[in-house]
Amino acid sequence: MAKKIIAIVEDDEQQRSQYSAALRAQGYHVDEYSNKAQAERMFSQQLPDLAILDIMLGQDLEGGFELCRFIEQIKPREVPILFLTSRGNEVDEIYGLNLGAWDYQTKPVTFEYLLARVRSLFNIKQGLSSEVGANSTPGQQLGPLSINSVTCKVTWHEQSVLLTPTEFAMLKRLLDCPDGVSYDGFSEATRQGVVENNTINTHIAQIRHKFKAIDGDFNAIKTRYGFGYKLSLE
After folding, report:
1. Using an 8 Å Cβ cutoff, are 86 and 106 in contact?
2. What's the pLDDT score for residue 102?
3. In the chain, where does DSSP find H-type helix?
């Protein structure tokens, strides 16, 4: 089986080298890039199986964001993108996720944690692919909400809602569980193992935000305090 290709775009040579060594030790093929132009040139020829992007790349203060947008234009929602950056404010995180990133982590992180996040993203990608292969009825409809597991397309009142793969998996679990989904249930659905409740809350906030962008009255995702969330279209 061919090794999975991971691209690391990081302008700090020491950090880039250390991350790469840790990933190679786990059997991944790692391509290293120090700047946006170099990475963009190679991505135009072949995209990696997963990309780890810093945001600030030398003089390109938002180079990572621009690379994420570049990848999404080629293969929307198909390449897991992980932002690994020192920019830890919520505005940047929300912006990165809205661009199509699958995950956003703030430095510093341990090598063990980084490896766990990478495995998690590959598990999500594999899970979505497996679901597509096994699902004989990919389309689901509940009132104005429509979800297609093959295309990962979501519509609300026939208007497209662009979700990240993690957000898609969470919304689908809500649709499949009419009594509600616990925090542990969301962790299982996204194949991310044990994650903090605040992380789940952030993803839910993002999902709500995207629906509200096309329907200001959207209020279908209800909070079940101390438990999780429930989808209610009543």
Report:
1. yes
2. 87
3. 13-24, 36-43, 63-74, 90-99, 111-134, 165-176, 183-189, 197-212
Three-state DSSP state, 233: coil
Q: What is the pLDDT of residue 2?
A: 76
Contacting residues for 51 by C-beta, under 8 A, at least 6 apart: 6, 7, 9, 67, 68, 71, 79, 80, 81, 82
Q: Is the pLDDT of residue 18 over 70?
A: yes
Residue pointed to by tokens 């093959």: 150
67: which residues sit within 8 A by CB, 6+ positions away? Answer: 9, 36, 39, 40, 43, 51, 53
Question: What pTM, to 2 d.p., does this model score?
Answer: 0.66
Size (the chain), residues: 234
Per-residue pLDDT at 124 exceeds 70: yes
Residues 58 and 13 sit within 8 Å (Cβ to Cβ): no
Range ranked top by mean pLDDT from 43-57, 118-132, 165-179: 43-57
Task: Give the span between the Cα atoms of 114 and 173, in whole angstroms.
Answer: 26
158 compared with 151, residue with greater pLDDT:
158
Domains along the sequence of the chain with CATH: 5-128 (3.40.50.2300), 136-231 (1.10.10.10)
